[in-house]
Amino acid sequence: MTSSANLNPNSLTFADDAENAIPLHVIAVDTLDTWAKAQPDRIANWVRAAGFSGALGSTLLVPDGNGGIEMALAGYGSDAARCRGRFHLAGCAAGLPEGIYALNGLEPEYATQEALGWLLGGYSFDRYAEQRPAKARLVAPEGIDAARIEIIAAGEALTRDLINTPAGDMGPTDLEAACGALASEHGATMEVIRGEALLAQNFPMIHAVGRAAADGPRLIDMAWGDSGPSLTLVGKGVCFDTGGLNLKPGASMGLMKKDMGGAATVLGLAHMIMALELPIRLRVLIPAVENAVAGNAFRPGDILTARNGKTVEINNTDAEGRLVLADALSLGAEGAPDLMISMATLTGAARVAVGPDLAPYYADDSALVSALEDAAARVADPVWRLPFHDPYEAMIEPGIADLDNAPKGGFAGSITAALFLRRFAVDTTYMHFDIYGWNPTAAPARPKGGVGMGARALLEALPRMLGL
Fold first, then answer.
1. Which helix (H) or strand (E) holds 414?
2. Residue 187 neighbours by CB under 8 Å, 6+ apart
3. 232: Cβ–Cβ under 8 A, 6 or more apart, which residues?
4. 323-379 pLDDT per residue, tens
């Protein structure tokens, strides 16, 4: 599986037939009258007769004298309406007939976002059944970096494909293969430590979590670039999570194919970084496991010793993501990167706190926070900062061991998980994302299913974060 897997080859690229493109006029509610007055009477009368008001997401085809399409109109609503969503023209694209369109009347500051949304609206997951994605294609608007937008769209599509693929076809071996394909595509190197070798090379918690599965645990280590500041990305690759011996109820297991959403998002971001040839040294670490039930599964009450020597009391085998990340973060910290970022579908508490549309993150460095939040606003990839709240450190210290993987009481579940991970990201600048990785309701450019969260914001912020 590569960044173009399962995709209509034209769906995530711009059309190049500008000469024959249908003009698509983007019209806000407050600009309709002005636009209509500048048109010939037959067009203005048609628009009035059709009741087109410029409402957000509305479309109208204007015929020519031969029964063809002379132009199309896309409603852009009001400022207040647009603030309640993003990628508005992707919603319009879904209502247009097959053809090639060229935008007119879109403010330049919106062009990049809307063009990306249009491409993302062409995504469909058709590995198992034929889908019908929107067939309206777009000519790249003037003034945008079309190649960059296509790369970002491909990275997001890779993330979606990986998350949407069920665990039967996306186990640890398959995730390793996807990483290998991406490494090959970009000339990166990759090493993999599997099975019992994890114990020999001191990754005991990755081994403990994944040893009960038929598809054994592994640590995937990808490297790219030989100059510039260093960035290490760590992605949770739990390909399916039964909960282990603390078995999840059936209703809670239905979406567990997405529990490798952190790894999928990291790989999508890695594709963007490598394809854009950012001048950095990139490392990607993915602990790939399945949390299964068998006679050799790790147990509640066990005490594990992590790579960095800290002991961890297991109070819930369903809090396994932080265990595999801990060993990977320890390895990452040993390399002393300039910045280390983990991404994981780690806690239900984060989803409850901010819902499925925001990417919650943790960071202590105010300069990184400023860079990320400015970037997130520019690229319509919303994030929300949660605190590394030091007074809660005591909640993850059980007394019998250095750390508790699942503090009792249910309070501050996302924060205590982030504090747990920070104990392993020592002596390095660290950020952590506790994402959901799934869009429960279809929206413009974001169909129901797997979705990247925070990757585009990070890509936009990296030059400022790393001093490029």
1. helix 413-422
2. 224
3. 282, 283, 284, 285, 332, 335, 337, 339, 340, 341
4. 999 999 999 999 999 999 999 999 999 999 999 999 999 999 999 999 999 999 999
For Cα atoms 19, 25, 26, give the angle at the middle one, nearest 5 degrees.
135
Which residue, among 18, 147, 136, has the nearest Cα to 74 in the 3D structure? 136
Rounded CA gap, 79 and 382, in Å? 18
Give the integer Cα–Cα distance in Å for 281 and 303.
Answer: 36
Compute how many other C-beta atoms are within 10 angstroms of the C-beta atom of residue 16. 12
* CATH number attached to the domain at 151-466: 3.40.630.10
What's the token pair of residue 43?
């067009």
Q: Residue 192: name the closest of 155, 161, 223, 226 by CA.
A: 223
Selecting among 194, 248, 310, 464, the annotated active-site residue is: 248
Q: Which two tokens stand for residue 32?
A: 């309709």
Tell me the C-alpha to C-alpha distance, in Å, between residue 361 and each of 216, 264, 324, 366, 415.
Answer: 30, 17, 19, 13, 10
Residue ranges of the chain that CATH labels 3.40.630.10: 151-466
Cα 257 to chain centroid distance, Å, stands at: 15
258 is catalytic: no
CATH architecture of structural domain 18-134: 3-Layer(aba) Sandwich (3.40)
The overall average pLDDT reported for the chain is 95
Chain centre to alpha carbon of residue 244: 26
Q: Which of 236, 322, 422, 456 is catalytic?
A: 322
pLDDT at residue 17, as a whole number: 87
Is 248 in the active site? yes
